[in-house]
C-alpha cells in the first residue's frame, strides 16, 4: 500500500492527525536503543514520551509515523494492529535483522568474487543488490586478512560492532574468503583522526595511523596476531570497487612476501616491491646472476636484518645501530665484512640500490 494512503487510513480510523517523517538511518538508530531495534513486530518505539512507528527503510532513509496529539493506549494498540496487518500483506518488515544484514553483505562478497574469477573487473554492483544503496558515497577501502590465523574465524556481528565502535558510525563490512573488505566514509575517518591522531599532516599519514590503531584493536580483541591489514590510498566509488579489491589483495600479497614480520601494508610503501614482483622470472634470474650477492649471505638472518634496517633508516649508521641495539662500531664491522665478501659497499648509493634490489629478488624467488 502507498505510504500516503496508509497514513490517510490511520488518521481516519483514530480520528487524529499523524506526521510522516523522513530521516537518515543513522539518525534514527541514534535515537532508539538496541532493545527497540530488536522489536520488529510492531516497529513502535517511544521517544520523549511520544510514540513513533518505523514503517519503511531503503537502507539510507527511514520513514516514521508520529502522532501530533497525545494518544490513548487503545489508539496505540490500534495503530500497532493496523500496521502489523498491512505489514503481513506487503511482506514488509521495518528493520532488517542482523542475520539479514550479514546475508546481504555475504551476497555482495560472493558477487565480487564471481566477477574477479570471471575477469569482469569493470562491472558495477547490480541495481537490485540490497547493499548497493550503501555504496553511493565515495569510500575509503580497507582489507583485513586472517589467512595467517589458526584460531576460529571472527564472527561477522562481533567484527561489525567493533568496526562501528572504532570509526564512530556505520561502515560497510563485506566478508570474503579469509578476509573482510571494509568501506568507510571520509567524515568518519576525519572524526577518528581529530580525536586520536593529532599532528598528522597528510592523508597517507592519517590512513597509516588508522590502520595501526585498528590492527591493535582487533589483535587485542581476538588474542594476538594472525591478521594483516591493507588500505587503499584514495576514496573510491562503486565503479572502482572491483579494481580496488584486486589492488588491495595484491598489497597484502606483497606485504606477506616482502614485509614478513609486519602486519600493516601500505601500497605507497611497496612501489618498488610491486615492480620487482611483476618482472618476468627469466629477467629476475638474469639480474641475480649478473649482480652477485650470494644467496647464502642473505639467508643469514643477522646479515639480512642488518641490511634491511640500514635501508629502512635511510642508510643512517647511528640510527641503525640504535634500532639494532648494537654499538656503532659493531654495525660498521658488519658493513665492512659484507663489503669484503661481495665487493659492494652499502654506504654508497649505487651499491645500496643494487643490494636492495637483490634482497627483494631473493625474497620473491624464495617464496613464490
Plain-language structure description:
This protein is α+β, with helices and mostly antiparallel strands. The protein has three domains: 3-94, no CATH class; 99-274, Alpha-Beta Plaits (2-Layer Sandwich); 279-367, Orthogonal Bundle (Arc Repressor Mutant, subunit A), CATH 1.10.10.2840. Helix content is 54%, strand content 14%. It is built from 16 helices and nine strands. A five-stranded mixed β-sheet has the order 6-7-5-8-9, with helices on both faces. Strands 1-4-3-2 form a four-stranded antiparallel β-sheet. A hairpin with a 2-residue loop joins strand 6 and strand 7 (179-185). Helix 11 (281-290) crosses helix 16 (349-367) and helix 14 (317-324) packs across helix 15.
Short description:
The protein is α+β, with helices and mostly antiparallel strands. The protein has three domains: 3-94, no CATH class; 99-274, Alpha-Beta Plaits; 279-367, PucR C-terminal helix-turn-helix domain (Arc Repressor Mutant, subunit A, Orthogonal Bundle), CATH 1.10.10.2840.
Amino acid at each position: 500500500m502507498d505510504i500516503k494512503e496508509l497514513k490517510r487510513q490511520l488518521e481516519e480510523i483514530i480520528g487524529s492527525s499523524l506526521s510522516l517523517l523522513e530521516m537518515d538511518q543513522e539518525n534514527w538508530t541514534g535515537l532508539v536503543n538496541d532493545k527497540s531495534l530488536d522489536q520488529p513486530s510492531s516497529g513502535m518505539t517511544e521517544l520523549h514520551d511520544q510514540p513513533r512507528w518505523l514503517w519503511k527503510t531503503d537502507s539510507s532513509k527511514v520513514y516514521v509515523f508520529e502522532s501530533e496529539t497525545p494518544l490513548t493506549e487503545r489508539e496505540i494498540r490500534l495503530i500497532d494492529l493496523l500496521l502489523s496487518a498491512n505489514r503481513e500483506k506487503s511482506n514488509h518488515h521495518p528493520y532488517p535483522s542482523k542475520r539479514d544484514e550479514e546475508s546481504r553483505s555475504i551476497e555482495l562478497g560472493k558477487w565480487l568474487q564471481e566477477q574477479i574469477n570471471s575477469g569482469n573487473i569493470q562491472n558495477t554492483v547490480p541495481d537490485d543488490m540490497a547493499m548497493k544503496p550503501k555504496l553511493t558515497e565515495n569510500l575509503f577501502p580497507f582489507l583485513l586478512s586472517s589467512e595467517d590465523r589458526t584460531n576460529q574465524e571472527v564472527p561477522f556481528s562481533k567484527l561489525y560492532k567493533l568496526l562501528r565502535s572504532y570509526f564512530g558510525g556505520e561502515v560497510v563490512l563485506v566478508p570474503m574468503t579469509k578476509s573482510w573488505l571494509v568501506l568507510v566514509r571520509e567524515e568518519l575517518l576525519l572524526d577518528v583522526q581529530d580525536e586520536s591522531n593529532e599532528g598528522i599532516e597528510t592523508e597517507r599519514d592519517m590512513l597509516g595511523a588508522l590502520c595501526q590503531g585498528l590492527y591493535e584493536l582487533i589483535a587485542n580483541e581476538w588474542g594476538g596476531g594472525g591478521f594483516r591489514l591493507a588500505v587503499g590510498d584514495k576514496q573510491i566509488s562503486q565503479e572502482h570497487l572491483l579494481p580496488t579489491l584486486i589492488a588491495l589483495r595484491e598489497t597484502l600479497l606483497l606485504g606477506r612476501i616482502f614485509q614478513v614480520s609486519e602486519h600493516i601494508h601500505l601500497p605507497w610503501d611497496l612501489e618498488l616491491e610491486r615492480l620487482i614482483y611483476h618482472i618476468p622470472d627469466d629477467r629476475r634470474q638474469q639480474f641475480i646472476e649478473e649482480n652477485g650477492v650470494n644467496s647464502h649471505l642473505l639467508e643469514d638472518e643477522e646479515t639480512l636484518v642488518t641490511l634491511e634496517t640500514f635501508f629502512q633508516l635511510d642508510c643512517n649508521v647511528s640510527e641503525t645501530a640504535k634500532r639494532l641495539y648494537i654499538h656503532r662500531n659493531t654495525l660498521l664491522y658488519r658493513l665492512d665484512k659484507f663489503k669484503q665478501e661481495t665487493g659492494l659497499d652499502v654506504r654508497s648509493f649505487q651499491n645500496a640500490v643494487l643490494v636492495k634490489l637483490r634482497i627483494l629478488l631473493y625474497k620473491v624467488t624464495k617464496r613464490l
